[in-house]
Amino acid sequence: MLSAFRQALATPAPGIAITTGGQLLTTARANGVPTFSFTYNQEPRAAIGWGLMPLLAIGEALGLMQDVGRDVDAAIQVLSRVVAESAEEVPEAKNSAKQLARQLHEKLPVIYGAGPLLEVAHRWKTQLNESAETWAFFEELPELQHNAIVGYSLPQAIAKETAVVFLESPALVHPRVRLRYQFTQDLLRKSGVSVLSAQAGDGCALAQMLSLVLLGDYVSTYLAFLYGVDPTPTKAIDELKAWLREQK
C-alpha cells in the first residue's frame, strides 16, 4: 500500500489518505496530502465501517454523490433489523443466518452475485475463508454463464458436496439477470448441487448491499462455531507475513 501511495504521489491526480497511522500517515502529511486517520486495533475485516463511511463522505464532498447522510441513516435502520433477526439468542428456526450456516456446513460454498452485489459476494467469500477457515469461492452473473455452467456436473463427488448461495435483490439485479438466476439455479439442481439464496433487505442500494454484507458476516461466524474454530484469528496470514519478513 505504501509503495502504491508513493507511486501515486508522482502523478498529478489529487489524493487523500485514509489510514490508522504509521508510515502512510507520515508520508502523506510530509507531501501535503489530506488525511483521515483513525484508531482501530481489531481484525481489519471488521473495520468495514471505517473504510466505507469516509469514502462516502469524500464522494459527497467532491460532488460525486448526493444525499449520503439519508442513505446512511436508512442503512443503519436496515442493519439494525438484520442484527435483531440474526442475533445469537434468536433460535435457528427463526434465524436465516444460522440456517444458511447449517446448510453450508461440510459443503464447499460458492457465492453468486450480479451487478452491485458482485463485491458483496466477494466479501462473503473472504469472510468464509477468514472467519470459518473454510474453502469458498465467488462468481459473477451473467459472466459465469459463458463458462462455469458447463462444468457443474464433474467431478460428481465435488458437485454433490457444493452449495451455491445466490445473493438476491429485485431492485439491484436487472430483470434479465434474474431470469439467468432462475436458469442457473435449475441447472445446478439438475447437476446435484445445493442451491441456497440470501435476500437483501429493503431500502436504498446502500442499505440493501450492507444488509447482505452483515448477513454474510453472521453466516461466516456461525459456520465457524459449527466447525469449532475461533472466527477471530487468521493464523495462516500471520505466518505468511512473518515468513516474508524473514526473506532476504
Strand order of the largest sheet: 4-3-5-6
How many domains? The number is 2
CATH-derived architecture of the largest domain: 3-Layer(aba) Sandwich
**Structural class, judged by helices and strands?**
alpha/beta
Within the CATH hierarchy, at the fold level, what is the topology of the largest domain? Rossmann fold
Q: Radius of gyration in whole Å, from Cα?
A: 20 Å
CATH class identity of the largest domain: Alpha Beta
Beta strand %: 5-15%
Mind describing the biggest β-sheet?
Answer: 4 strands, parallel
Question: Which consecutive residue ranges, at least 5 long each, have pLDDT under 50?
Answer: none
Task: Jot down its keywords.
single chain, 248 residues, alpha/beta, 4-stranded parallel sheet, two-stranded parallel ribbon, 10 helices, 6 strands, globular
Give an overview in words.
The chain contains ten helices and six strands; from the N terminus they run H-E-H-E-H-H-H-E-H-E-H-E-H-E-H-H. It is α/β, with parallel strands linked by helices and 248 residues long. Helix 6 runs parallel beside helix 9. The model has no long low-confidence stretch (mean pLDDT 95).
Brief digest:
It is built from ten helices and six strands.
Write the layout of secondary structure elements.
Elements: H1 2-9, E1 17-19, H2 22-30, E2 35-37, H3 48-61, H4 68-86, H5 96-104, E3 108-114, H6 118-131, E4 137-141, H7 156-159, E5 162-168, H8 175-190, E6 194-199, H9 205-227, H10 235-246
Parallel strand pairs: 1-2, 3-4, 3-5, 5-6
